[in-house]
Amino acid sequence: MTLVDINAKIPNNVDLAGDRRLQRALESWQPKFIRWWEELGPVAHKTDPVYLRTAISVGREGWANFGHVSMPDYRWGIFLSEPEANRKIAFGDHKGDDVWQEVPGEYRADLRRLIVVQGDTEPASVEQQRQLCLTAPSLYDMRNLFQVNVEEGRHLWAMVYLLHGYFGRDGRDEADEMLERHSGDADHPRILGAFNEETPDWLSFFMFTYFTDRDGKYQLASLRESAFDPLSRTCEFMLKEEAHHMFVGATGIGRVIQRTLDLMREHDTEDVHSHGGINLDVVQKYMNFHYAVSLDLFGAETSTNAANYFAGGLKGRFQEEQREDDHVLKELFRMVPEVTDLAIDEREVTQLAALNETLRDDYSEDCQKGVDRWNRLISDAGVDFEMRLPFVGFNRNVGTFAGRRVSPDGQLISETEWQANVGRWLPTESDRAYVQSLMVGVTEPGKMAGWVAAPTTGIHQQPVDFEYVKT
Ligand SMILES: [Fe+2]
Ligand SMILES: [Fe+2]
After folding, report:
1. Average confidence (pLDDT) over 342-369
2. Phi and psi of 195, rounded to 5°?
3. 30 lies in some domain
4. What pLDDT does residue 1 have?
5. Which residues surround ligand 1, an ion (CB under 5 A)?
6. How many domains does the chain have?
7. For position 146, which CATH number holds?
């Protein structure tokens, strides 16, 4: 069991006190992080006590405590999950070798890049969501937003620890740049496109936490397989926190749908906009948008980088060790989509070349589970409507589908046809304006905005009307 130093200036279970140089380096990064939080973290309720979960340990049980904390006092710590004795590399050219406790010179640049790209998304999402606290539909929701925000901040700490601890001077420079790039900044944008868009309303936030945080889950799960053991252990622990973010999305979208169904029944109509709900077809359009943007995050169908990362042992597949194949993938094949001017076709490539597509498939399968649950709510209400994930090629900007027009049901269509229908498939200006018009902050304990149903249970056995944020 690694010892947790919970009272240190930077809580940790990596024995920071035993490495003065590293400790000093991180302690000098800490005030820059706090300054960033104050400037680009949540725009309001900055010092209000919030009922937050704080990671304090890495064991299976009781790894976190709950209590009211003012966010600047949140104890952002560095936690790696327990080491696995005699862990071996599970895939790629070094399969069967001992995992690495230090970064091999030949993989230094690639590992740094992987860590920087992952790390960059963490503060980006805090920046994207900073205005949302003004329009939280309840204190329960505001608390969840802040919980997600502080944990994304901790995920940045997790990546910065690796950069400082294992990449010397270059790593320290990269850590500083994490706070210099900003979401949507024209001169210093965040690395990935999806992380430069503002999250303008709570329906978008729920979609983001369901679809885009889930991309994070799949990236982290692949990095958890890494031969670089500190990265693996870091990601393992981050995944624990990430589960709650996706819960916020899954239940959030479910509550929006539930409220719509209630209003439909109450007013005996499919159009609930005059009653302050969000029509099911609008929810579907938001889903189409966020799903497609998130699919792009997995990259092109075939990728030399991804193949090299895998062969090198840097990044595996989702649940690598549970797969029954050779874990080398050079002589195993699969089909990937390929679009021509005439048709959506397929071609056969090595599984090694197609790792992005394989991870995207795993992700899509996972996304479908929530959609099935939402559809059960709809059918239980006796309503004839089915939510559907659009076809993988719909509205994509990365890979073979980029620049093509593809309908949600998977037909290659003309620009004219696209323009004639896009308003039925993606949120229109007026859909967005309508959703925006519903965004009114509700800060009375237990009260909910009119467009979303109350959650069925509160957080950590507290009641729904608990004062989750003392405003
Ligand atoms: Fe995260
Ligand atoms: Fe997250």
Report:
1. 98
2. -95, 10
3. yes
4. 53
5. 122, 152, 155
6. 1
7. 1.10.620.20
